[in-house]
Amino acid sequence: MSQFWSSIVNTLTPYVPGEQPKISNLIKLNTNENPYGPSPKVLEAIKAHTDESLRLYPDPNADEIKDAISAYFTAKGTPVQRDQVFVGNGSDEVLAHTFQALLKQDEPILFPDISYSFYPVYCGLYQVEYKNIPLTDTFEINPKDYRQSNGGIIFPNPNAPTGRLLALEAVEDILKNNSKSVVVVDEAYIDFGGQSAVSLVNQYNNLLVIQTLSKSRSLAGIRLGYAIGHPALIEGLERVKNSFNSYPIDKLAIKATVASFADEVYFEQTCARIVRSRDLLSEQLTAFGFEVIPSSANFVFAKHPEHNAEALALALRDRSIIVRYFNKPNIDQHLRISIGTEDECQALIQALREILTPS
Ligand SMILES: *Cc1c(COP(=O)(O)O)cnc(C)c1O
């Protein structure tokens, strides 16, 4: 507390990100980073543009990125124009602007009780009222629960930290039954097995889809996220962005992003490799007695009926493996384990074998 703080600062409960320990030889399975590096073409692009032109400000609109993204989705079958794309410094920033520009309404917004824990933090920052909608007993979003009046709806799909996917028809059900509110689908993990709601943006003017380069494109360090939706929604976001930071996307991030969307082969190969490891790890964990929620993401969410989750996380840590543990109601017996390389997954299995076998 300080007498110099603006009064709202006293009310904030900031988000706590998964730790980034400065220890080497650690198997880091706690923040859903991609275990494979970015495409070599991305690294070449960054090197090629690391020159004296960095003295200049970047394009304030990052139009090169918007054009690359619109061309990418158009080629995949959904025509997306430049004015349907918003870009930000990580999807966390896109989310922040979304809360401020679109989700602060007279009625409370809705989101699942178990979902991305940054949402309530933004509600605190922007003073957005919200109502949590419980997941079902099997940790699923039930679209029928979203048939009630609201000021907007947001959920991750696949959900975080459960990894569960909501089918596209169910997303569409939520859109149809909420035509008067904005429905934001946070698709940070969609490339690991889901069907994206981007295919619906030209049908529903209340839909905003947010994606990131941090997970499936292995560029968490670049901080690039984007939103796709009706031009009026995008304009709302642009108005907030241009009242906040004219140049959120630096020049190297622009070049890296464009190069990433140009290398589809690398993207598809690395995503497929992670999906294979996830499915194998899920089987192995199940064989150890874990209850594993079916995952469509690059992590699994699992609990062991006979072992305390926090104790397991600490025992793994003693073996230099870090996973994410949430000390929160309903999920304090689960571990969220990011999918590493094949070797990292096997090291995890070996460590669990030691921990779970009575000596
Ligand atoms: C990782 C994640 C984000 C944030 O991604 P950045 O683009 O790195 O800011 C947003 N939403 C969900 C659900 C995530 O898991």
In short:
With 359 residues, the chain is of the alpha/beta class.
Structure, described:
It is an enzyme of class 2 (transferase). This is Histidinol-phosphate aminotransferase. Pfam families: Aminotran_1_2 (PF00155). The modification N6-(pyridoxal phosphate)lysine is found at residue 215. Its EC number is 2.6.1.9. The model has no long low-confidence stretch (mean pLDDT 97). This protein is of the alpha/beta class and 359 residues long. The relative contact order is 0.17. The protein has helices at residues 40-48, 63-75, 91-101, 118-126, 168-176, 231-241, 251-262, 264-287, 309-318, 342-356, and strands at residues 27-29, 85-88, 109-112, 130-133, 153-156, 183-186, 207-212, 225-229, 291-292, 299-303, 321-325, 335-338. A 5-stranded mixed sheet has the order 1-11-12-10-9, with helices on both faces. The chain has a 5-stranded mixed sheet with strand order 2-8-7-6-5, with helices on both faces. Strands 3-4 form a two-stranded parallel ribbon. The protein starts with 26 loop residues before the first strand and ends with a helix. The chain folds into 2 domains: 21-37 and 265-356, Aspartate Aminotransferase, domain 1, CATH 3.90.1150.10; 42-262, Type I PLP-dependent aspartate aminotransferase-like (Major domain) (Aspartate Aminotransferase, domain 2). It is 34% helix and 14% strand. Helix 3 crosses helix 6 (231-241) and helix 8 (264-287) runs parallel beside helix 10.
